[in-house]
Amino acid sequence: MNYSKITTAALALTLAFGFATQSCAPMNNMAQEKTVMVGGAAMYPTKNIVENAMNSKDHTTLVAAVKAAGLVETLQSKGPFTVFAPTNAAFDKLPAGTVGTLVMPENKAMLTNILTYHVVPGRISGMDLMNWIKKDGGKYMAKTVQGEELTFWMKGQKLYVTDAKNNSAQITIADVNQSNGVIHVIDTVLMP
């Protein structure tokens, strides 16, 4: 598997909200699919991450970052990918000016590094994470497309992920299934 292509695809996938083409699926088929609401919009499992993400009002900052990184086309690929998608409120927690600096053309490599840190190859459900956490004694480590690891853990029945800088994000919406992977919405931006 070519991880440089996956890295680019994963970043684009993570940030591609808003830059997708419309699905050709008939409306009556979409109405019968099991959907999850994210950012005020239904996410259809037969659409890819990009196609669904374009409608989420909670991920407009992520969309802008995907566009700045030039990753939209890549994230429409087959995958599968597991994306930990920070909300606008998560980006708002960063120090003032951080997002504006990251989307500048001269910082594209840094932006790509951060975005691919939010993507794990494969399709990993919330139940998978819970089972692996329990099996591994309370924590589970997963390697990201960026190359570093994320640590997953639970408090009660809530899932959390901790980054390399020891910041933790709660998974606020799990298992937003897509045709090319799964999205888990998180409340904090992860940093490698």
User: Shape from CA axes?
Assistant: globular
Helix content: 25-40%
DSSP helical segment count:
8
Q: How would you name the CATH homologous superfamily?
A: FAS1 domain
Describe this structure in words.
This is Immunogenic protein MPT70. InterPro entries: Adhesion/Biosynth-related, FAS1_dom_sf, FAS1_domain. The protein is about 35% helix and about 25% strand. With about 190 residues, it is an alpha+beta fold. The protein has a single domain (about 5-185), classed as FAS1 domain, CATH 2.30.180. It has a seven-stranded mixed β-sheet with strand order 4-3-9-8-7-6-5, sandwiched between helices. The chain has a two-stranded antiparallel ribbon with strand order 1-2. A hairpin with a 2-residue loop joins strand 8 and strand 9.
Write the layout of secondary structure elements.
Layout: H1 3-15, H2 27-32, E1 36-38, E2 41-43, H3 49-53, H4 60-69, E3 81-86, H5 88-92, H6 98-102, H7 108-116, E4 119-121, H8 126-135, E5 139-143, E6 149-155, E7 158-162, E8 168-178, E9 181-186
Parallel strand pairs: 3-9
Antiparallel strand pairs: 1-2, 3-4, 5-6, 6-7, 7-8, 8-9
Helix pairs in contact: 1-4, 1-7, 4-7
Please outline what is shown here.
The protein has helices at 3-15, 27-32, 49-53, 60-69, 88-92, 98-102, 108-116, 126-135; strands at 36-38, 41-43, 81-86, 119-121, 139-143, 149-155, 158-162, 168-178, 181-186. With 192 residues, the protein is α+β, with helices and mostly antiparallel strands. It is globular, with a radius of gyration of 16 Å.
Labels describing this entry:
192 residues, FAS1 domain, 8 helices, signal, Immunogenic protein MPT70, FAS1_domain, Adhesion/Biosynth-related, FAS1_dom_sf
